[in-house]
Amino acid sequence: MSRSARDVATAVGAVFAGVFDQLAAWRGPIEHLIAAAPEVRPAELDGTVADLVLPRLVEPDALLVGAGFIADGEIVRGRDVHFAWWLGPLEANPVLGSTTEPTRLDLTTRGYTEYLRDFRALEWYAIPASTRHAHVTGPYVDHLCTCDYILTLTMPVHAGGATGGDARMVGVVGADVAVRRLERELLASFLDVPEPLALVNEAGRVVVSTEPALQVGQLAGAWTHAEPCPGTPFRVLVEPAASVSK
Predict the structure, then answer these.
(1) Does residue 139 have a cis peptide bond before it, meaning omega lies within 30 degrees of 0?
(2) Domain range annotation of the chain
(3) What is the pLDDT of residues 73-114, one digit of tens each?
């Protein structure tokens, strides 16, 4: 196996480790707030989450396109579900147009939000709830906010900050990474390898590729080698099997 391909896989793992470390840093203050009272006032929760996530969303060339906390309604006074979620500045967004400041996600202004009534069944919530571990969902087209391919990273938040077997999950802290932005982050290292490469998720769907025939979200098919990306469900595939057989 090419050492260069392994280096690329390590670089991918490092990018996602950085985002997971950020989610873990956000989780602590949110769990501390939740532990202080049986129910949290929405405005207090929103203020805490905004103070945490907004600095990352306004960084120059920010990696994160959105971030926040999605709470199970039982901990937020008067709410069945509560989205404390913000989008970073956007260019030519089909929903919001071009924005120069972060925008709060307002579900009342969005169409096609009925599916969120059963948000606990959605992958970005259900997998952390069942595994008690962080998870990456995607790539998928985000019809709610960006109307583009994204990856959603989520981490469970527990009442009282406990994480043991008896801990009660009360929501997820999360962040969205646009695939276009991730490609800019990784493409130089991918192009350093002479063979075609493809970054794929656990199901084999393409995230980033230097194989021109493969697009984001497409199933990659058979490749000759694969390098796991540490700490993620992703693999770097090396050299399509069809091109080797020719």
Answers:
(1) yes
(2) 3-180, 183-245
(3) 778 877 777 899 999 987 766 565 667 789 998 776 655 555
- Give the CATH architecture of domain 3-180: 2-Layer Sandwich (3.30)
Contact (CB, 8 A) for 134 and 154: yes
* Whole-angstrom distance, CA of residue 45 vs CA of residue 36: 12
Q: Do residues 66 and 56 make contact, with C-beta atoms less than 8 angstroms apart?
A: no
DSSP state of 39: S
Q: At what angle do helices 3-35 and 179-191 cross, to 10 degrees?
A: 150
In sign, the C-alpha dihedral spanning 74, 79, 84, 86 is positive
| Alpha-carbon span 38 to 40, nearest angstrom | 7
Residue 36 in contact with residue 45, Cβ under 8 Å?
A: no
Cβ–Cβ contacts within 10 Å for residue 29, how many? 14
- Tokens 């929501």 label which residue? 171
**CA-CA distance, 172 to 72, in Å (whole number)?**
9
Using alpha carbons, select from 199, 172, 182, 188 the residue that is nearest to residue 146: 182
Predicted TM-score (pTM) of the model is 0.90
